[in-house]
Amino acid sequence: MYSRFVAGEAEALADFLAGEPWPFHVHERVDRADVLQRVAENHYDETYWIEADGERAGIVRLFDLEDETPMFDLRISARHRGKGLGRSAVRWLTDRLFGEFPHVERIEGTTRQDNAAMRRVFRRCGYVKEAHYRRAWPDASGHRHDSVGYAIIRRDWQTGETTVPDFHDE
């Protein structure tokens, strides 16, 4: 279901990313030439294809792997959304990061407040809302959306428990 992207697949990645809009990402439209340039700059070193129904349905890009708190970018093509691929991908990347990188203490992800599907994915995968950033996410039209940050800590992943931050500490 997951296969590592290799630089020889640059054209396929560029086609995939530039081939449709990504409404809940900072840049809704991706420029094909930019993807090719970023591949040449090793931007997609830790990127994995998500495969479903015999085709490439999405990508997961892991980054900041040297940090104790890596992050990720997840994109599922429009026609494959709503089929559980996002949830499977977040569970897969969580298990991979905690299982293969002993220095990782927590994993973070951020999404727009209005991306209800991704917010459900985070919660169903044991991630906890830790931050709410007001008017922090501009879209292509200049409208500013709130963004929300989620994370899972190693202890919660190991125990299956969910610890919630104390937001009432003032």
From TrEMBL:
Looking up Gene3D superfamilies in the UniProt record yields:
3.40.630.30
**Ranges for domain N-acetyltransferase:** 3-155
State the superkingdom.
Bacteria
Q: Which InterPro entries match?
A: Acyl_CoA_acyltransferase (IPR016181), GNAT_dom (IPR000182), Ribosomal_N-acetyltransferase (IPR051908)
Which is one Pfam family of this protein?
Acetyltransf_1
Protein name per Swiss-Prot or TrEMBL: N-acetyltransferase domain-containing protein
| Organism the protein comes from | Lentzea roselyniae
